[in-house]
Amino acid sequence: MSTSSASQNSSHGSLSDVDEKSCKKLLKECEMFHRLSADQIETLTKNMNYRPLQRNEVLVNQGNPVSAFYLVKDGEMYREFLDPDTGKRHSVEFEIKTNSINTMRVLSGDPAQSTVKCKTSPSSSSTNGCGVYEMPRQRLMDILLNERPDMGVGIANSLASHVREVSKKYRTPLLEQRQQIIANMPAVMIAAGVESYYRSALNAQINRALTGVKSELFPNMHIQVPMRIAYIAGFKGLRAIMDQYDDDGEEEEDNSNVIKEGNGLQRTDTTRHQEDINRNFWRRLGITIAPGVIMTPLSSILEASNAGHLNKESMATRWTRGIVARCGREIIFGLGLNQLSDYFQERFQFGDSPMINNMIGSMMAGVVSGYLSHVPHNMSTYKLIEPHRSYPDLYKNVFVERSVPPFLERFLTRQAQSTANGAVVPNHSGAYQAVRFIAATIFPRGLMVRTVQIVGSFMILNGTINYFTLMQQQR
């Protein structure tokens, strides 16, 4: 009988010799038991059972009283905390890595602080994704109070030297950020309605900086307001749908994990694990950029509403101008509004105020998104104004010409001049052009206005949505 089979058979009885050895090792590594003597470890081992878990099977539910503690033998466990105040889900990590679950709460039986589930697919050597050793709380209390009361001193000594709780932190990767639970969709619409006026005014200033032509601050608001509401609601709604799709997508075809290669050998567990990581990365990347791509047509209509004084084409034609560059801008906008805002909010906590933390996260995400989106935004604007010209032509002869700072242009001109037959003539070398292109791309015209626009939009949208969501949950 294989080790895996023996372990599974021991789930309703004593552990096999191999499992006993493994369990003792895990107990000695556990922060709660590492100061216990060998015979005390032996006593605990004799009272533990093996429990197999399938992929995505929940071991512990947040809020339920702790009824056992576990030691992870095989596989990877995922911890997730649902903040009851904000409705935001966080991946939980500990500074000190151990293979124990619920050891800090099993004595008191307090409610579990996070949901724990298996995240590993079955391997070629086992039909289970994860395996844990389990000790029921009632059995542990019986040992401590009746059979081995001396063990309590060792546990107290272990805990005193290993306080893990202070090391807990939220570190959800950027592409794995999940949306705050929004129970009140009208909050999104209110936020979008307020932000539409702010955006329209700043957009008019950006167009003025790019073209030199003054325009109305609030043109075609009968089109802009409903479109902006649909646009922002689309970003938030699509993210919620995409998050649900990601949860469903993790339910892989476990029966197809063992695949024969051309040489007749089975893939190793390491290879399969790496393939899972790669597949999850590309799925999350697609989920992240999809809202920006989908919402580009609505954004194009909004842009066309602001440019009627510069492009006299009909709205039916005008909204398609610059759509390629605009799509790149919308991907960056969606990433900043959703994942990047949550990413910064999670990592930069200032006090206990969720509103302040939300504001700081939105501000930092707005700075990053505003800067990264300035080139595609300017290019989409120029293409909208001059649709007959190509993107390379617009970049070289319009974007660069209008974006190079005047002082740098004068300096480069002086450096590039040469004398021929007593006359000063320009000498525009390749290095000269390269410096101009780099300077225009790094710090183009309208950058500050664009960054302020994005920062303000993120703070208005996320702040308003967060405020109404908190009010809803506090009722």
Q: Could you explain how this protein is built, in words?
A:
It is a single chain. The protein has 475 residues and is an alpha+beta fold. The protein folds into two domains: 169 residues, Sandwich (Jelly Rolls); 254 residues, Mitochondrial carrier fold (Alpha/alpha barrel), CATH 1.50.40. The strands form three sheets. The chain has a five-stranded antiparallel beta sheet with strand order 2-7-4-5-9, with no helix packed on it. A four-stranded antiparallel beta sheet has the order 1-8-3-6. The chain has a two-stranded antiparallel sheet with strand order 10-11. Helix 11 runs antiparallel to helix 12. The radius of gyration is 30 Å and the shape is elongated. The N terminus is likely disordered.
Notable characteristics:
475 residues; alpha+beta; Jelly Rolls; Mitochondrial carrier fold; 2 domains; five-stranded antiparallel beta sheet; four-stranded antiparallel beta sheet; 56% helix; disordered N terminus
Order of helices and strands: HHHEEEEEEEEHHEHHHHHHHHHHEEHH
Number of helices: 17
Q: How many β-strand stretches?
A: 11
Reading off the top of the CATH hierarchy, the class of the largest domain is best stated as Mainly Alpha
* Mean pLDDT over the residues: 82
List the helices and strands and how they pair.
Blueprint: H1 3-9, H2 17-29, H3 38-46, E1 49-53, E2 58-60, E3 68-74, E4 77-82, E5 89-94, E6 100-101, E7 115-118, E8 130-136, H4 137-147, H5 151-161, E9 168-170, H6 185-211, H7 221-249, H8 269-294, H9 296-306, H10 315-318, H11 323-347, H12 354-372, H13 374-385, H14 391-403, H15 406-416, E10 417-420, E11 423-426, H16 430-442, H17 447-473
Antiparallel strand pairs: 1-8, 2-7, 3-6, 3-8, 4-5, 4-7, 5-9, 10-11
Region (Disordered): 247-272
Domain Cyclic nucleotide-binding: 32-144
InterPro entries: cNMP-bd_dom, cNMP-bd_dom_sf, RmlC-like_jellyroll
